[in-house]
Every structure is written in structure tokens, then in C-alpha cells.
Recover the amino acids of this structure.
């Protein structure tokens, strides 16, 4: 037993001891009595048992099967189907509620942690709060995390290490958490080392004290006995011959269950010429199992490895079958199509076909073009995927290649060439979602991250994970914009057109207008065109309005200077006087939104020429180019006042004009407008008044502080980041009597608004 400074909780007696006592082996595991005793003691919180168990071993050692068999005993319903009375009582945990078993396959560390939060119905708003809430529960919680090695949507991003560091270590440090985790050997010591002596135990299935030679023989014997479709041989029909061969296979495999499985499959597939008495015909490891199988079928072992090589590098749920030949040829540097056509029977024992039809694929279909709406797209689209039957085979094949980075480079280039007309909307979903993962390991990802079409079409969870694995200094400006907006894309699970719309605005916000414009030419149905964006920290309410042209000075273009402080102060004085003359009397308790009601006073007359649409933005006093609002009487010396900043509504450029001259749309004009808006803290909807259909939905990673919609459909929005104007691009529906959607029913705008809040109907 290998422990991190702890005492052994149980004696490591083997399966033979259990069998000699007359107990039957576990029907699914076929042994592992010593480990099952240790796990049962952990589950019942036996005195002296560790609070945390770290299960590890080499690939193919049987960790996943062991965890699955143990969980059968822990599930109140499933255990009713097991012959519990026939099993060693020390291996059977008590009948308790089932533990939480979050499956890490394909998930990021954060996703797995929030899966746990959902399971326990926690109210945590931050990841750190999850551990705090778990620690504060009255009753201890039991958590089993299987197959940590399968974590993450991108293999090269090393998500298992992040999962151990960011999730398992804090869980293990939480006194009320009883944790069992299946962890790769290179991470097991790190996890166990984070805990005090006596609280943790490492169970390494390759260590002699946890070895199960009798169980391995039983595994081989059962596989030979199940060979009902193979030609009858003495070692499949005669119990003594079968036992003898099973012992030889297990002995030769050196404790590795995957090697045993591959050895039995191969000899049953091609029994001719096999001599059961010649152990040299039996594999000692996975690599030998591959090579002996190829030779037994009269093939070159290297050909078999090249056929399987694309699957060893495959991401997600598997590789589309039609890409196998393309990628195998790329890796081999020659045409492999005939080898694959002739060699599928050769490769069959190592390949598992997957008919893709899970929820992610259904979401892909609903998205219209196969892009991942679910956030965890398998890139399948209802087709046949191929994957290797075990991760240990992939490890062996990759290890046998002279240069894995070169192989990934060849794969990446072949995938890029397979994109029709370099149009991502026509690309295979696997290529869209997983090309970034291949280029990451090849060291080519930064060069790929300049294409706005890929940013929009690729599954955001996979692409974000790959981009985050690249050092920030290696990323160009478009990639940094993507990285900034990616959390919103993944959280919202937005479909492809909405992803494109959010990216379009983000590019404008970051001064990358060519990338924003490119998205309008790539066939997306975008609900808006972003006209301009201002990085105004502290911006409050906003309103749309208009100014008579004769009252507008030449605008200051963005990128240059806002109106000078001298001009601003002079104009502000005029604005204050104008507002005061109109009877402004603002009580001190009024908030920012109320202050603005006196800054923009009038309503625009009916539609006429000679006016300039503008945006009036409430900003902290002292913002360059702004004009201070009048303060309440007796509050002249107070700090932290508010001011108004005017900006052209339709194009970049500040406007130097008196805010008191801004005319807001009349109530009749708003009611006659084709669109209305409704919003919450972090979402906003634009809906057509004629049919109440939502034509644009906006989400934000920061709360909205203001919003307004012009009669011509320009959406003005302020958040903690700044102010943005978007032209709604949906065609205006036929005019109808103005109505309010059900979700927006409530007080009339005039009752709910206090000035620069615009239309919130």
C-alpha cells in the first residue's frame, strides 16, 4: 500500500483469501477484494479509515471498472440486483444514499465544480463559495470523481491537472467532504500531498499489495468462455485448457487488464497458428498486443499503427469516419486509402464506433448549420464517429511516433485544407470545433486566431479552453477580444448567429472595426450592426434625442479629443442656466437617473428635417467633454456630481452642444415606433410592437446601467464598461396598435422612468 503519511485502514488480503472463505467475487469486477474492502471502510467512515482516497494506476490497470463496480454497491437501487449475501461482507458498504458522482468527461474544472453545486442545490455565486457552503453543511457529503484523466474538451490543455488543483484539492481540504477520486499517477502524489497525515490514502493498483493476480486470471478465463462466435478450440471449451491459457495470459500481461483483453480478442479473431503453450505469442503490454495482432493477421504492425494514429489524436467524442483516411495519409506522408480499405478488419478490435445522436448533436441540428449550441458540442451531427476502445492504446500509438508535434501539424494542415472554400459554415463540425485543439499541440494556434468566422462557428467551450492555454503575450488583438468575450459565449450557450453578434460588438468595443465588418459579410443573420462604442467607466443612464443642426458645433471624432474643458464649462454654465430657468429643483435624495430628468428637458416635435440624432449620456462630473448638471440648493460644495455628455447617435463623434437643447422623442413617436425594449439586470430584448416577437436579445457580462431605443431602431446601451450604439437590422413589421409583451407588462414607461431611461416598454 502506498499512502501519503497515513495508516493502512485495512489489511491488503487478496481475492484468493476471499475465495478460500467461500465468498463469490464481485460479478462485475471479478476480484479486487482488498481494494473493495478499503473502499467499503471509507464509505462507512470506519474508525481509522481515511477521509480521502486517491485511486491510481497505469493505463489499463482497471481503475474505471473498479470504480464502476464499487458504485454499483453504493447505489440503493442497483445493489438490489447484486448477490450481496454471496459477497465478502467486508467489501459491501452499508445501504446509504448514493454519493454524488460528477462525471468529468469533457468538462472543464469550473464546469465540474458547478455541476456539484447544482447537485447539492447550493446558492453560491462564486466558485470559492461552493467550498464554503459544502463545509458548512450539517451532514458530511460523499463525492466520487471517476476518470479525472478524461476531463477537459481539449487534451493538450491539461485540464486534469487544473481539475486536481482547482477542485479536488479544495474539496479534499474541506473537513466535511469524503472524497474518492480516480487520478492519473503523475497527479496522485500532488493531490495526496495537500492533506495532513492520516486523512488520505493512495491506492495504486500496480503496487503488489493491491495486485489481484487471481482476479486477472478470472478476467481472462471469462473472456475465453464468452467466445461463443469463435471457432471451437480446446482453450475455449475445455475448462482445464481454458484455465491454463488464462493463467499464462495473466502472467504475461503483468497485471494489466487492458493487455489481457487485447490478447484474448486477438487470438479469438485469428486462432489459426496459435500455440497456447508458447507464451512468446502472448503480449506483455499494449504495444506488443498491437504488434502481435498485426503479425497474426499477416500485416505490417506499422500499418496498423498508422491506421489508428488519427484516432490516437482525436478530440471530443471521436473522429468522423470520413476523416480517417485523410488524416492517416497526412501522418504517414503517403496515400493510406487502400491500406484502410484492406485493413479495417485488422483495426476492428481496437476501434469503437459511436453513433452520434446525443443532446449536443440535437442542439447542433437545431442551430441550423451544425455549430455547437450546447457549449459541449461533440462535433457529430448524427454521423458515425470512431474512437479507440481505451485511452491506453492512444498513449501507446502516440509514444511510438517519432514526433507527435509534427504529426499534429500534419493533422492541422489536413483539416484546414478540408474546409470547403475556407468557409467555416461549410466545414465539417469536427473541424470547426476541434481544429484549435490540434493546432494548440502543434504550436500553431496563435496563427489561426485571426479569423472572425472561426471565432463565431467554433464550439465556444473548446475554443476558449484552447485559447486560454496559449500565453497571453502570444495572442494577437482579435484573439484577446475573443478571450474577453468567451465567458459570455460559454455561459449563454448562444447559437451561432448570436455568437457572431456578440463578437461583432466586442470587436467594435476593442477598436477592431475590420473584424466586426467582416462578420457582416460571412452569411450570419445578425440582429444589429454596432455603430460605435465608448469606453466610459461610470456611465449611467442614457437617452436618445435630437438637436437642431444650427445648435450643433463640429463634432470631435473619437480617437481625437473631446470638447475642451473651457468650452465644456462654458456650455455647462449655459446648460445649468437653461435648466434652472425651466424650473429645475432636484432634491438631494434623488439618484442619478432622477438628475438626468432635468438635463434633457424638451420633447422633439414631429419628424422634420434639420435635426441631428444624438445620444445623451449621464457621466460622473469632470468627465472630459461633459457639462455639469445643476446641483440641489445647499449642495454646491459636495463632490461626486453628475454631468451630461453628448455624442452623435449614428456615427463616432462627440457633439459640442448645450444638453438643454436636446429634444427627446415624444410619447406618440415612441408608441408609433416599430420596436420596443424590455430589460433585466443582464439581458435586454428588442421586440416588434406589431406581433410582440423578439427581434434581438442582448446579454451582457456586466449589469446594464441604462438603455434607450430611438424611433428609427438605434439601441443605446450603457454598462459598467461603457456605452454602445447598435442599429437594429430586423425589418420593421407591419404597423399595428402598440402593445406590450407579457414579460414586460407593468407600469407605463412614464411612471417607471426618471429621465434618461428611455423606452422600457
Amino acid at each position: 500500500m502506498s499512502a501519503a503519511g497515513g495508516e493502512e485502514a485495512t489489511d491488503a488480503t487478496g481475492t484468493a483469501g476471499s475465495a478460500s472463505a467461500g465468498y463469490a467475487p464481485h460479478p462485475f469486477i471479478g476480484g479486487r477484494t482488498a481494494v473493495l474492502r478499503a473502499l467499503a471502510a471509507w464509505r462507512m467512515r470506519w474508525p481509522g479509515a481515511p477521509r480521502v482516497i486517491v485511486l491510481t494506476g497505469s493505463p489499463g490497470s482497471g481503475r474505471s471498472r473498479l470504480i464502476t463496480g464499487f458504485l454499483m454497491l453504493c447505489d440503493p437501487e442497483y445493489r438490489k440486483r447484486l448477490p450481496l449475501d454471496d459477497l465478502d461482507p467486508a467489501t459491501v458498504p452499508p445501504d446509504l444514499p448514493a454519493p454524488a458522482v460528477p462525471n468529468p468527461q469533457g468538462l472543464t474544472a469550473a464546469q465540474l465544480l458547478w455541476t456539484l453545486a447544482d447537485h447539492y442545490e447550493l446558492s453560491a455565486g462564486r466558485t470559492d463559495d461552493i467550498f464554503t457552503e459544502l463545509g458548512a453543511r450539517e451532514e458530511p457529503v460523499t463525492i466520487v470523481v471517476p476518470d479525472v484523466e478524461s476531463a477537459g474538451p481539449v487534451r493538450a490543455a491539461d485540464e486534469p491537472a487544473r481539475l486536481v488543483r482547482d477542485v479536488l484539492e479544495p474539496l479534499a481540504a474541506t473537513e466535511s467532504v469524503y472524497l474518492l477520486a480516480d487520478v492519473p499517477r503523475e497527479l496522485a502524489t500532488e493531490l495526496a500531498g495537500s492533506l495532513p497525515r492520516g486523512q488520505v490514502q493512495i491506492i495504486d493498483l500496480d503496487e503488489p499489495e493491491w495486485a489481484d493476480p487471481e482476479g486477472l486470471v478470472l478476467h481472462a478465463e471469462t473472456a475465453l468462455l464468452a467466445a461463443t462466435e469463435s471457432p471451437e478450440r480446446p482453450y475455449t471449451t475445455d475448462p482445464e485448457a481454458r484455465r491454463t491459457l488464462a493463467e499464462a495470459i495473466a502472467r504475461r500481461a503483468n497485471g494489466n487488464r487492458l493487455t489481457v483483453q487485447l490478447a484474448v480478442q486477438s487470438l479469438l479473431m485469428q486462432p489459426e497458428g496459435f500455440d497456447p503453450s508458447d507464451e512468446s505469442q502472448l503480449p506483455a503490454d499494449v504495444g506488443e498486443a498491437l504488434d502481435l495482432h498485426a503479425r497474426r493477421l499477416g500485416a505490417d504492425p506499422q500499418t496498423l499503427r498508422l491506421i489508428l494514429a488519427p484516432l490516437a489524436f482525436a478530440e471530443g467524442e471521436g473522429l468522423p469516419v470520413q476523416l480517417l483516411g485523410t488524416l492517416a495519409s497526412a501522418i504517414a506522408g503517403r496515400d493510406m486509402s487502400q491500406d484502410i480499405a484492406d485493413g479495417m478488419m485488422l483495426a476492428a478490435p481496437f476501434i469503437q464506433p459511436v453513433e452520434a445522436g446525443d443532446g449536443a448533436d440535437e442542439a447542433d441540428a437545431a442551430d441550423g448549420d451544425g455549430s455547437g449550441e450546447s457549449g459541449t458540442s461533440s462535433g457529430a451531427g448524427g454521423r458515425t464517429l470512431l474512437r479507440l476502445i481505451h485511452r491506453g492504446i492512444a498513449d501507446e500509438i502516440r509514444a511510438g511516433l517519432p514526433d507527435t508535434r509534427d504529426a499534429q501539424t500534419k493533422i492541422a494542415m489536413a483539416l484546414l485544407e478540408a474546409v470547403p472554400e475556407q468557409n467555416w459554415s461549410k466545414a465539417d463540425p469536427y473541424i470547426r470545433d476541434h481544429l484549435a485543439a490540434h493546432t494548440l499541440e502543434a504550436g500553431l494556434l496563435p496563427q489561426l486566431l485571426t479569423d472572425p468566422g472561426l471565432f463565431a462557428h467554433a464550439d465556444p467551450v473548446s475554443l476558449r479552453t484552447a485559447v486560454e492555454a496559449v500565453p497571453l503575450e502570444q495572442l494577437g488583438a482579435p484573439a484577446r477580444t475573443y478571450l474577453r468575450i468567451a465567458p459570455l459565449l460559454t455561459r449563454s450557450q448562444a447559437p451561432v448567429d448570436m455568437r457572431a453578434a456578440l463578437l461583432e460588438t466586442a470587436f467594435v468595443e476593442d477598436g477592431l472595426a475590420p473584424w466586426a465588418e467582416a462578420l457582416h459579410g460571412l452569411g450570419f443573420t445578425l440582429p444589429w450592426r454596432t455603430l460605435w462604442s465608448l469606453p466610459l467607466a461610470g456611465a449611467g443612464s442614457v437617452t436618445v434625442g435630437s438637436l437642431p443642426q444650427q445648435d450643433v458645433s463640429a463634432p470631435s471624432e473619437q480617437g481625437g479629443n473631446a470638447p475642451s474643458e473651457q468650452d465644456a464649462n462654458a456650455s455647462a454654465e449655459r446648460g445649468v442656466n437653461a435648466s434652472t430657468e425651466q424650473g429645475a429643483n432636484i432634491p438631494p435624495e434623488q439618484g442619478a437617473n432622477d438628475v438626468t430628468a432635468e438635463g434633457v428637458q424638451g420633447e422633439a416635435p414631429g419628424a422634420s428635417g434639420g435635426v441631428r440624432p444624438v445620444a445623451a449620456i449621464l457621466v460622473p462630473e469632470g468627465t472630459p467633454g461633459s457639462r455639469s448638471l445643476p446641483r440641489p440648493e445647499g449642495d454646491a460644495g459636495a463632490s461626486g456630481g453628475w454631468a451630461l455628455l453628448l455624442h452623435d447617435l449614428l456615427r463616432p463623434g462627440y457633439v459640442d452642444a448645450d444638453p438643454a437643447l436636446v429634444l427627446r422623442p415624444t410619447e406618440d413617436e415612441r408608441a408609433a415606433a416599430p420596436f420596443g425594449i424590455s430589460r433585466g439586470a443582464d439581458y435586454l430584448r428588442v421586440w416588434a410592437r406589431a406581433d410582440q416577437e423578439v427581434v434581438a436579445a442582448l446579454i451582457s457580462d456586466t449589469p446594464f446601467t441604462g438603455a434607450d431605443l430611438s424611433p428609427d431602431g438605434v439601441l443605446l446601451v450603457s454598462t459598467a464598461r461603457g456605452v454602445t450604439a447598435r442599429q437594429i437590422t430586423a425589418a420593421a413589421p407591419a404597423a399595428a396598435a402598440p402593445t406590450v409583451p407579457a414579460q414586460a407588462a407593468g407600469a407605463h414607461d412614464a411612471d417607471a422612468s426618471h429621465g434618461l431611461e428611455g423606452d422600457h416598454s
Summary: The two ends are 68 Å apart (CA to CA). The chain is about 40% helix and 15% strand.
